[in-house]
């Protein structure tokens, strides 16, 4: 076997050096181990591909390489320059390289990459057209042992028999496969090595071809499964940059680099973006130009001739790296520009977020310095590319609105929300939507209404966003009268329901109607109101026109405009009380507010004071119809005004003209305080103060025949105090009539006896006029006529008490007892208590005494105590009420009611307890029964024990003690006639 590469001489020199200085053996072993197990641990595929690319470049031929893994052996065949003696020496010299004089296209450096094979094999073989060479751990160990050097033996022993493999080449026989110039044969060490090779071959992709421009074709054959890599640039958008450092740059940038590296002043950069989603996934690391461990967060593949540290895994820091970072940033900006020119959206390629490492941060920062000056964003107006520093975005604007704004906002570009971070990273100027909208009124003031409609159409999507609607608050809008106003809210959108002539009539009063050619649905979303009759009538300018119609140049025009709208649908005027201020012509042609006009021949005309109202011109009624003129306040009967949630301490403007409304509010408010009190629903009858005195009979009949008037009169209001407790109160109409309607005798109608009043009560009250008998009973009660005591108000109660205290009146006992029971439970109290009161006189009649000479007897036994004074008699709550009403003490408050002596206990007869089960078992008999020293026939003490001195007294004592006063007569019969027991028992069966 011929030694064409002089491997024997290389071995002799290496072995001699080791023998002479075993420390050199140690250094070579350590260096090879560091490379094989460190920087080149998983780079065998990349390094062999790199060697193949360099061979193709040196030979000037297309690079082709085949990786074939079969039966535990990896064979890597390539085209290109064959193996040379210099190359073999380079392989066997870890720090030397056969490539130092190669062109700038060579990728491999310093001859150390081949050491990557030691991660998977101990017996690498290289076969070339010019010869072969092999390396062997076993043969190298034998060669070292053959030196019989004690020093080397010690070093080998320290290394557990491990020796350098690649320092001792051996000749080898064989030929590379047909079509290839060189083949590297790697018998794999074990299954772990085979698994590593399979993974590395599986990871090989387009990045490998892009990193090694000398290769145009790679075939990967794993146990017969073949995959070919070729034409990588058809799947990637590529941007290249390259150059050679001049003498000055070499001195400045390479001063800290190794000698071998300083001899190669070439640099190159390649950025690549996948053309389709199906392209290989980005590796996420920097290639220099083969993969490093430097992370890369940019969404692209970067291949650059960055200097590496000794581990070959990381980019070395220094001026050369800084120079290449700037060059890479410039190339990246050019790549994005090219992609943008092709129509791609490149904002997703702009660096955002956090950097993945120091080099990545430097690349990102440099890119963000280069990109703002690079045309990469597209102008909305003409589609041209702009550098970000010349571009602006409108915050919140969408594509449609951007297109509308583009002619007037220079440099406007789109601003999708998902690109917001990228736009900010590029420093693109942002304009607030509200500011742009506000400026539209100045820059586009001369634009026609149709142009504005296009603007509003462009806002169709944006107006659905509540936050954006706030920013559009000052949007300019052209009006039908030629003005351009800012702000949409409150504007009226013209429609077919309101005639153009009506709009023209109101225009001079400030009714703001959008120009018909500018109308768009977006305006309604922004607060404009569709032009319905109701919307027009509610417009503040229309109200101003109505309220000042008397001062208008032509009041009839305003009247015609309002009545035309109302006549179309009278329900549109409901609740708009101020329409009654509209002036119309009366029968004499004078201008009179609608609320002071009446329909000729109507009830209103008959009952209201002609000094206050006038008949309307009948031509107006004929033209617009009776419902229309009534809807704005012209009266055919009495009118009403309604209001909701009325605060009594701040009455609404709609109620301000009601006579005495503030006094009513005070009277119905809880405890007389209006503050914090409210009425949920209030309907008031207006113009009661205009009713003629002689017309009240007819007016009150109207209340009974009109459901609306009737409700406004008879239904009480519900007043809620500040403590949220509800209270009932008189309606405004009932209050006003009770307080202010005076009959011919000069006295109020209220407080008189109702035609259906209790005769006893009526005898103490003034008679109501005969015509009141024709009124609805509820109307009579509402206006203050009294049918029963509970109808009396405080003034009525005071009047009744005064008349009861009149000594010239004869009042029977039965009448006073009925009145006392009703007065005692009535809630109305006069302001002052009476000086004199009527009491029983014991003869079936009554008499009047000073209040200080009367007591209230709430139990029958007190009636035996004539020593206490005159008696006012009632029971239970009525007695307490009378005591308060009359300011008369209860009997027990002036007498102790203490029994003198004990009495003799006796059993209550069985029949009594049978007929009245509540009766006690025992009673106390007295020969003479004295209470507080006064003789009585019976008494019940504080412990409800009955005491008696007579049969009649015993019956009453037992009945009162049992709480069955109604059974006193039955008990007396049992006690006085015991032979009637059977009869009484049978009668009780039917009780």
Low-confidence stretches: 96-111
Please report which band the strand proportion falls in: under 5%, 5-15%, 15-25%, 25-35%, 35-45% or over 45%.
15-25%
Mean pLDDT: 89
Treating each run of at least 4 consecutive H or I residues as one helix, how many helices? 39
**Radius of gyration over C-alpha positions, nearest whole angstrom:** 58 Å
Span between termini: 147 Å
Biggest sheet character: 8 strands, mixed
- Strand adjacency order, main sheet: 5-4-3-6-2-1-7-8
The helix-and-strand class reads alpha+beta
Task: Bin the helical content.
Answer: 25-40%
- The counted number of beta strands is 40
Multimer state: single chain
Shape category: elongated
Attribute tags:
elongated; 8-stranded mixed β-sheet; 4-stranded antiparallel β-sheet; alpha+beta; 991 residues; 36% helix; single chain
Describe the fold and architecture.
With 991 residues, the chain is of the alpha+beta class. It is 36% helix and 17% strand. A hairpin with a 2-residue loop joins strand 1 and strand 2 (73-78). The longest helix is centred in the first third of the chain and has 23 residues, at 319-341.
């Amino acid at each position: 076997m011929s030694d064409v590469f002089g491997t024997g001489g290389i071995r002799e020199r290496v072995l001699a050096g080791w023998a002479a200085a075993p420390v050199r053996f140690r250094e070579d072993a350590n260096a090879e181990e560091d490379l094989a197990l460190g920087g080149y641990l998983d780079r065998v595929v990349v390094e062999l591909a790199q060697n193949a690319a360099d061979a193709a470049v040196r030979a000037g031929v297309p690079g082709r390489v085949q990786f074939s893994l079969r039966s535990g052996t990896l064979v890597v065949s390539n085209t290109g320059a064959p193996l040379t003696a210099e190359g073999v020496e380079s392989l066997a010299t870890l720090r030397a390289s056969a490539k130092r004089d190669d062109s700038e296209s060579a990728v491999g450096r310093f001859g150390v990459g081949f050491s990557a094979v030691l991660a998977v094999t101990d017996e690498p073989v290289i076969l070339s057209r010019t010869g072969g060479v092999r390396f062997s751990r076993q043969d190298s160990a034998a060669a070292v042992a053959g030196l019989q050097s004690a020093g080397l033996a010690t070093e080998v022993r320290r290394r557990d028999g491990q020796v350098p493999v690649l320092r001792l080449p051996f000749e080898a026989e064989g030929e590379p496969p047909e079509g290839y110039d060189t083949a590297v044969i790697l018998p794999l060490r074990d299954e772990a090595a085979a698994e590593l090779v399979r993974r590395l071959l599986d990871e090989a992709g387009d990045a490998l071809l892009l990193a090694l421009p000398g290769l145009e074709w790679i075939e990967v054959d794993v146990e017969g499964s073949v995959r070919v890599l070729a034409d990588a640039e058809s799947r990637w958008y590529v941007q290249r940059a390259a150059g050679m450092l001049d003498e000055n740059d070499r001195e400045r940038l390479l001063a800290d680099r190794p000698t071998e590296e300083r001899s190669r002043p070439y640099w190159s950069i390649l950025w690549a973006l996948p053309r389709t989603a199906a392209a290989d996934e980005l590796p996420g690391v920097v290639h220099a130009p083969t993969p490093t461990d430097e992370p890369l967060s940019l969404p692209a593949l970067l291949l650059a001739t960055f200097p590496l540290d000794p581990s070959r895994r990381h980019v070395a820091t220094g001026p050369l790296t800084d120079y290449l970072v700037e060059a890479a940033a410039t190339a990246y900006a050019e790549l994005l520009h090219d992609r943008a020119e092709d129509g791609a959206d490149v904002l997703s390629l702009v660096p955002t977020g956090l950097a993945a490492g120091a080099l990545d941060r430097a690349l990102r920062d440099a890119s963000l310095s280069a990109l703002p000056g690079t045309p990469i964003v597209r102008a909305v107006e003409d589609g041209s590319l702009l550098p970000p520093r010349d571009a602006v975005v409108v915050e919140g604007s969408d594509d449609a609105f951007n297109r509308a704004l583009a002619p007037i906002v220079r440099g406007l570009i789109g601003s999708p929300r998902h690109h917001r971070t990228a736009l900010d990273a590029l420093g693109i100027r942002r304009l607030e939507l509200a500011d742009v909208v506000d400026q539209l009124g100045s820059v586009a003031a001369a634009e026609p209404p149709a142009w504005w409609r296009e603007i509003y159409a462009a806002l169709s999507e944006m107006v659905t966003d509540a936050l954006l609607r706030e920013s559009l608050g000052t949007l300019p809008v052209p009006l039908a009268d030629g003005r351009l106003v800012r702000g949409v809210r409150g504007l009226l959108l013209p429609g077919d329901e309101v005639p153009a002539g009506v709009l023209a009539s109101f225009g001079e009063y400030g009714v703001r109607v959008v120009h018909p050619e500018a109308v768009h649905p977006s305006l309604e979303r922004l607060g404009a109101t569709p032009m319905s009759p109701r919307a027009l009538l509610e417009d503040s300018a229309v109200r101003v026109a109505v309220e000042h119609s008397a001062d208008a140049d032509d009041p009839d025009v305003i009247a015609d405009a309002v009545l035309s709208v109302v006549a179309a649908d009278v329900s549109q005027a409901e609740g708009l009380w101020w329409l009654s201020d509209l002036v119309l012509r009366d029968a004499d042609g004078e201008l009179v507010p609608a609320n002071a006009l009446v329909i000729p021949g109507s009830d209103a005309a008959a009952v209201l004071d002609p000094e206050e109202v006038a008949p309307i011109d009948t031509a107006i009624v004929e033209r617009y119809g009776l419902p229309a003129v009534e809807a704005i306040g012209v009266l055919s009967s009495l009118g009403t005004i309604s209001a909701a949630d009325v605060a009594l301490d701040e009455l609404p403007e709609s109620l301000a003209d009601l006579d005495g409304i503030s006094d009513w509010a005070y009277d119905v408010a809880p405890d007389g305080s209006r503050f914090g009190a409210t009425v949920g629903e209030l309907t008031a009858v207006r113009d009661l103060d205009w009713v003629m005195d002689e017309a009240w009979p007819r007016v009150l009949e109207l209340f009974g025949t009109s459901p609306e008037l009737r409700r406004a009169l008879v239904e009480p209001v519900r007043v809620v105090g500040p403590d949220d407790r509800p209270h009932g109160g008189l309606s405004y109409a009932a209050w006003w009539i009770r307080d202010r309607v005076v009959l011919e005798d000069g006295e109020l109608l209220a407080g008189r006896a109702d035609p259906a009043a209790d005769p006893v009560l009526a005898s103490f009250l003034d008679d109501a006029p005969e015509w009141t008998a024709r009124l609805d009973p509820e109307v009579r009660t509402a206006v203050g006529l009294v049918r029963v005591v509970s109808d009396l108000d405080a003034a009525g109660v005071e009047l009744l008490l005064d008349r009861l205290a009149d000594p010239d009146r004869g009042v029977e006992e039965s009448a006073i007892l009925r009145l006392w029971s009703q007065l005692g439970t009535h809630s109305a109290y006069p302001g002052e208590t009476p000086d004199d009161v009527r009491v029983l006189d014991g003869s079936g009649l009554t008499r009047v005494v000073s209040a200080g000479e009367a007591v209230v007897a709430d139990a029958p036994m007190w009636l035996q105590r004539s020593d206490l004074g005159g008696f006012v008699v009632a029971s239970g709550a009525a007695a307490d009420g009378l005591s308060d009403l009359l300011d008369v003490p209860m009997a027990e408050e002036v007498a102790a009611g203490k029994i003198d002596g004990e009495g003799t206990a006796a059993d209550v007869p069985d029949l009594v307890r049978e007929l009245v089960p509540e009766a006690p078992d025992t009673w106390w008999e007295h020969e003479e029964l004295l209470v507080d020293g006064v003789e009585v026939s019976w008494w019940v003490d504080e412990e409800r024990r009955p005491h008696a001195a007579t049969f009649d007294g015993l019956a009453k004592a037992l009945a009162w003690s049992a709480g069955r006063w109604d059974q006193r007569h039955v008990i007396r019969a049992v006690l006085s006639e015991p032979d009637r027991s059977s009869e009484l028992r049978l009668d009780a069966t039917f009780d």
